Amino acid sequence: MARRGAGTLFLPRLSLLLLLCPGGTLGCASVAVDSPVVPLGSAIMASCTIQSELCRSLERGNVRITWMLDNEPVAGSQRRGAGGTEVSNLTLPQFNRTQARLWCCVEWNGTKQRVGMAEIRAGYPPAKPSNLSCVLNLSDYGLTCQWEQGADSHLPTSVALKCAGSRAQAVTGCTPQGGRSRCTVPRRLLQLYRQMEIWVSATNALGTAESEHLCIDPMDVAKLDPPALRSIQSIPFQTDCIRLAWEVARSNAHMELQCELRYRAPEDPAWALVTGIIGQAGTTQRCGFLFGTRYHFQMRCRRSSARGYWSEWSPGRNYTTHEKAPTGKLDAWWSARPAGAGRQLEVQLRWKAPRRREANGRVLGYRVTLSPRRRGRDPPAVCNTTHTQCDFSAPAGTTRVYLSAYNAAGVSAATEVVLLERKGQPLAGLRAVPGGERSLWVRWEAPPAPAAAYVLEWQRVPLAPGRCSACWQMERDGAATAALIRDGIEPFQRYNISVYPLYKDAIGVPIHTAAYSKQKAPSYAPKLHLKSISKSDAELCWDPVPVEMQNGFITSYTIFWANSTADVSSATVNPSLSSFVIRELKPSTLYKVHIMASTAAGSTNGTSLTLVTTVLDDIEIQFLFLTLALVFVLLIFLLICFQKNGRVKQQFWPSVPDPANSSLGKWVPAELQQVRLP
């Protein structure tokens, strides 16, 4: 039985081998398609022909042909062909795959056997290459070109860079490798100083596309080597002019060039550019440099024909111009108060460091004197400091001090600071709005009298360690009605701002405002405390949020309360208040209460407080205790009265005679008297 079963299983396997052997598959079935490469989405027609006499395992039965596209069955038609063949035709109206295998199958012993296959690819003609550009490298005179290939065609595409001389046929200059969109044409295929035609050709099974043809002289697209800066010096001394010497690279020595020079100081936001420098080597002169300033210089060149590419910028060279004594006046601000029984004046003087154009180098320090310099002699200094603030004492009645800055080259002219009284008219109005996350716009209404200038003071609340106690700036335009302040401004911090109008003979009384450059929700909400409670009211109190945690102006507090039935109520409280009474509560009920602090930019909830209302109010409890006390007193009073008053006592507790003392108690019947006890 085992041998018979093994023999039965062996026969189908042997027939399958005969069907799929080279003599069977290759000679038994053939698959033909109209085209192995088609446009994506187009129709495909295929046919499968089975020669039954060559398929030894199929001779005895009917041949049934089916189709599969990859692993999906598709339906075709079948007919008998010439010479005893079986033919199946298949039409796919829309082929939407980029690559697939079409299988011809026959059914044998209840299973499908693949006997033929055709591989089909679909895609698009190649896209037109664009943005072709080329650069000639003078080190090896190779022409490197790059382009944009365009959309993927989904088909194998060959790309080549073609070039042709004025009288030569087109040749393949180079072929990009690894799917790149760039390659280099070697020197032997180039014609320098002559026009050449260059383009990109992309070809696949569906067509060919070419880029726009680029007609260039390779030397016109040469990228030169950068020049070298040799020396920089000031000319003549003590002026703002410099002379710079340079020379071109050796590979560019035979060309006429035009060059550009750029320079900037570390503080400059952009480069200053000098154009129109002609020549192969030489010097160039430039004026307008700041004194005592370090500059960074670079240079680049290209062919003077104004074609081709600029070289890379040369290696940088630094140069520091010579210093000069500071110039200009210093912005100063002060406060003064009497001291020493009115014989001294305590002065706090502050000033701004000179601007770069006025500093003329690195400022080494500042001097404050009580009199100006006369006949080249410096008066004694009450302050000699490297800071921009000085506290000193001056004799009472001092109305002027003199401030000067100095560097290694000299001392500036003294700035006269007049200590005016603060009694002038104030501004008509003041407000501040955000100018950005780290700036504030301060706007004011001009005072009735014309002002010569304005001083703005601001300080963070609360004062942060390591920051100016009162930052300030001066607006010298008396017609100004706004100023932007940036120094020390940070988001989510409050700043108190004061503005002083400056008059010719006095300082105006300041007016004040507060502002934030940016607001957000408070860092936390206050903690609620229960101050008192009754059966229908609960008084709550809280401590205000500290200024540094408010992150903005508190616009309101909102109190929320809810009982166990989730009946939520709320009330909005003015931010100036720190207590609130919740009314109309239910007696003997548990409530959850919390507070929310809000700014214009958001809100923050506090922790929850649990409270239980009483059964009675305090007045009701007092009335109950009073009633009980009155009842108790009345009872005591009645007891005393009963005890003292016999008539009343007789009415409530009458006297009852003792039966033992009655005549009936002493009476004995006659019969009982004659009986004698034994």
Tell me the layout of helices and strands.
Layout lengths: L1 H19 L1 H7 E5 L3 E3 L4 E8 L13 E5 L2 E3 L2 E4 L4 E8 L6 E10 L2 E13 L6 E8 L4 E7 L9 E7 L6 E4 L7 E4 L10 E9 L2 E4 L3 E3 L5 E2 L4 E7 L7 E6 L9 E8 L7 E7 L2 E6 L7 E10 L13 E4 L11 E8 L4 E8 L4 H4 L5 E5 L11 E5 L3 E7 L4 E8 L2 E2 L3 E4 L3 E3 L4 E8 L2 E7 L7 E9 L9 E5 L6 E4 L8 E9 L4 E2 L2 E5 L13 E5 L4 E4 L5 H4 L5 E8 L4 E6 L5 E4 L7 E10 L2 E4 L3 E4 L5 H27 L1 H7 L10 H4 L3 H5 L4
Parallel strand pairs: 2-9, 10-18, 34-41
Antiparallel strand pairs: 1-3, 3-7, 4-5, 4-8, 6-7, 8-9, 10-11, 11-14, 12-13, 12-15, 15-16, 15-17, 19-20, 20-23, 21-22, 21-24, 24-25, 26-27, 27-30, 28-29, 28-31, 31-32, 31-33, 35-36, 36-39, 37-38, 37-40, 40-42, 43-44, 44-47, 45-46, 45-48, 48-49, 48-50
